[in-house]
């Protein structure tokens, strides 16, 4: 994995009061001039004045799909970074942000319709779509597991057309009818295609698969998520380390999540967050295998010299080294997606995107507390307790509930509790009944 995240990489403070809205249509605009604070790293020494400090509890989230995107890897010191308070920046993404192959697509500007593919790109399938990844997931006639297995076989046989099809899958799942040709795939950069999509996407078309409410589209969302999870699970032993597939997918999704087109931003955020959850499971598996290998190595090394199998010792040592390298790569992927996607999208203008972020960070904290149950991650949940939308606040509480119910995790929550306990108590009187009920349950759990 070629992605490296420097330790000093700064991230924007989430609560910037009085952020200007610079466009009459926040879903679609080529240029934005938002500013954002950069928060200091949190520690016990600077806790009271750290990034946990809330400047404006009545903060109303504004569209931030075009916040300054971190460029990885970042070379040089933080003084080289532009001041976002005074520097206007566009949503054009630097070519240096992306590794891997390139793509482009042709977009058709058409009005949307629920049952007509010619208008929405999200209705009944055209004949040419039936044998694509999107067609298979959309129809639901083939299990995502089978679809993934077939794609992996194609990838092993001929990598380039397989990657082209996977890239097309994410574009099509957003409701875009653009087709990625092999020539476009090899010639144009991700930055170019994202810029073209921003300029050419039909802003009057508000319908796309993820916001459709019919049973067929609810099933599509479920299949879409399962496809991503199965893809990572099936590729976890070799393909995700080949510096091709995962690099390209993360690169594409990170760019799309910064798009001002809601359909691309929403779809790619869901994909990126579910991919990160799947990678958390991979990290756990690697960690377990590494620990088991270490125990076997220590047991073999502790044997008497004349009974020790030198060949086995060498194999175990090499295996341990390989697993340590894999663990480092997976952690780099997790940090990259978190800083490149989550840090910006957890305060997106669209409530459903913010909700996705809160749902998934709760999963990461439960499954991998060693990495994620830390104040540098918990603070995002704390800040979002002040969200103006009830469903988002509710999801924050649901993310916290299982953490407080686990006695083994209580100590890791002490700083978070001391900072946000008053807010949690206030939420027991929330105007949204379901939020108030969940807050009562959580506070009761804390007081036990």
Automatic annotation (TrEMBL):
Compositional bias annotation for Polar residues: 16-27
Sections of the chain in a coiled coil: 299-333
UniProt superkingdom: Eukaryota
Keywords of this entry: Coiled coil
One GO location term (cellular component): nucleus
GO biological process, one term: sister chromatid cohesion
SUPFAM superfamilies the UniProt entry points to: ARM repeat
Molecular-function GO terms, alphabetical: chromatin binding
Segments of this protein annotated with the region Disordered: 1-48
Family statement: Belongs to the SCC3 family.
Protein name according to UniProt: Uncharacterized protein
